[in-house]
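Handoff note, outgoing to incoming analyst
You'll be picking up this chain. Sequence as last confirmed:
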Amino acid sequence: PTPTPTPTLPPASPAAPTTPAGKRTVAYYTAWATYGRNYQVSQMPAAQLTHINYAFANISNGQCVLGDPYADTDKAFPGDSWDTGAKRGNFNQLTKLKTTNPNLRTLISVGGWTWSANFSAAAGTPQSRATFAQSCVSFMKTYGFDGIDIDWEYPVSGGLQGGVAADKTNYTLLLQALRNELNRQGTADGGKHYDLTIAAPAGPSILTNLEISKIASTVDWINLMTYDFHGSWDSKTGHNAPLTQPTGDPGPAGFYSDSTVNSYLSAGAPANKLVLGVPFYGRSFAGVGATNGGLFQPTSGAGTGTWEAGVLDYKDIAANYAPRLTRNYDASAKVPYLYDAAKREFISYDDPASMALKANYIAAKGLGGGMFWEISGDTSDYALLDSLNANMR
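Most recent structure output, in case you need it:
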């Protein structure tokens, strides 16, 4: 009889790269990802992450409140119970994700660009700080988070709304109140440690409004928002997230990641408490001439976007732009860019190659890890995340 042929098995795919020892891989997940983007909590590659920051909780009457009650706690997912009091929504999905990934930690991120108006009042007095801290820690406990991430954009200088000079010292005091309340809760819970982090500004004129050394000694780490250095609000095109100083950039000095990192280091933040932010999106600019591949050229405003004008998910760029356009590279800034001559659009973005250089930088500077905004922007095979983890060593 003919011997049965041995079936040829496909080669095992190499395991996805995980976070190197001593580093952090911090993903922002947005409440709204569950809607049009249709990117669900359960899809996150939890084994490749150390922390997930859920964006966002809001502030109302000086207290932490649900940002989107439907997405956060009401939306039913497969396997959810409709019994009275049963847990549902994204928060319950995060709890389930941790059940299968016990080392994963989740933080509730409070505020964000749109919801920072009420920070100033919450930070304003000892009583308001105590009320805020107690409410946020209670929120954290109620919904099963392991820590709190404060995203105040921005103390003193303001953002969508103005700030006041007192914000500078009050922010430090607010974080200290949170730290004390988290420590109290941790002791009550048998010696647990709850994380406290912030999302921190990158621009030179804004970061001077923080008491960086005092903040660094209070929080577990600082997530540097080292992106959005340039965008459709500028009169000329530029890089969204240059790593090093771009030659010929007509914009303000210090608008690149290495400058931000060095500013925080000089101000007294330890390197291992600085987590470098990297974008899982690019920025597009319209009405751009072809000179210099569109780089540092006049622009009429926001170009085409994936979900909003001027902002492109990396997965959109990888599928619909990069294959048909020439990849240009700014060796001084260590980031790529694209120019669409037919549309007269310029696109600044990061790809796996530039992400690898940023990860190498994290390792070389002894930083605490990498953070990204936000996880639904990556490709389905997590090309950017893989590059970050694989090269952060």
